[in-house]
Design goal:
492 residues, Nucleotidyltransferase, domain 5, alpha/beta
Length: 492
Amino acid sequence: MRELLSTQLKAGKTPLIGVTPIEEVKFDPKCRDEITKILRGLQEMYICEELRLEIFDILKQMLPKNISPQKGRKGMDLWTIFVLGVLRLGCNWDYDKLKSCFDNHIKIREMAGVDLFCDLGKVTSLKCIQDNVSLFTEKVSDQIYKLVARFGHQHFLPKTKELHTRCDSFVFLSNVHFPTDFNLLLDSIRVVISLCSSKAESLNLPGWRQHANMWEKARACYNKLSKMRHSNSKKDEVKEKRTQDINDQINYYLELAEGYFKKAVQLQDSLDDGMPVLKTYLDYGDLFIKQIKRRVFDDIKTPPEDKVYSIFEPYTEWICKGKAGVRQELGVKVCIVDDQLGFILNHRVMNKEQDTDVAVVMAKESKDYFPLVASMSFDKGFHSKRDSAGATNRTKIEKEVGIKAFIPVKGRPNKEDQHRQSSPKFIAARKQHPAVESAINALASHGLDRCPDRGAVNYNRYVSMAMTASNIHRLGALFMARDLKRSQRKAA
């Protein structure tokens, strides 16, 4: 059974003794802490009845279809789950920190609707928080952060004013180690041994009793191989001998892996269900063995599109953006659009996509969600060459979407581009464009630096929830600034 918010005062009901109405929770407008700003934003969202009802309707989508919201044991309120999910991303907390703050922070408990009289010493289990916060979906978060942005525009943007937006992309890192074909093969060996030994033990099958020793052999072989280096000697015979030693160790490593995989296939064939999860990692192991043989013995390079950079996060890409001091980044590019108020209007996880591929899509989606969008600035990475019809990304956005696009050209501009890029509007838009870097830095500081969750679905959900937390944080900051001005005006 799930309720939206069971502890708040309802019409005709007697209020609970220890429950503070959310609209009466007090915050210090001078406080600069991120927790206070997020809670203040949540409070304004709750006070607005129209927005509150819309958000409650969206939160109902989190409930699994096979679970009744009216029957069964009472679970955590949907509003409490929403508050915890936003705090986790907005403050860049892990679940342990989230649990500690939820159990001990008075303002968080008040905003979550906790009864501070009856439930004063109540402690929520870590597993309970993890299971409930993970009910969030990418679809739910997408809808909420756009509602928050629209709510912010209603309060801080005059109705006649236009939205001037900025678009840029950045790399959101996945939680993976630096990949080589040797250590990825070791990962495959470890998972295969773990899966097979667990299955054999549960079914009382022979052959995997010494699984710990098997893993130690593979790890020792990899460690020895990773420490071997080619010789820098001027003598050819010394170089050849060292090369031969390295090749012999590689052959031993590959033979050991092939023997384990062959044994795992025999176990898989003896089972009725076939263990599809095991097959996935066996396929990875076979792929890495073939790559190593081609690279080491045949001197054939593997094309980037055929490479896998993690067996646990296979969506991970190897990205080189040319930043100073950053040779490569392992993750996926994320494109965002923000406005002059600092709200995120749209985002896109760019799986196997480049900036030029998403420029028109981002402009069109932003215009559909927010009709007040009048212009959008980009950097050079979003510029595209003329297609067969003679159109570029800039002309497509201006003709098909109907907004002004400020995209500087790559290389030396012609006279037409020089005239366009020297116009006062273009110069003003380019001066405002670096503000999107501030939004990207804020996202990285509030959770969007490295994804702790596993899997592509959870990765996309984490990105979307970060956009929601960012918009609520920004909303709270704007309301607190307005509250501070009002208090100063009263004091004067």
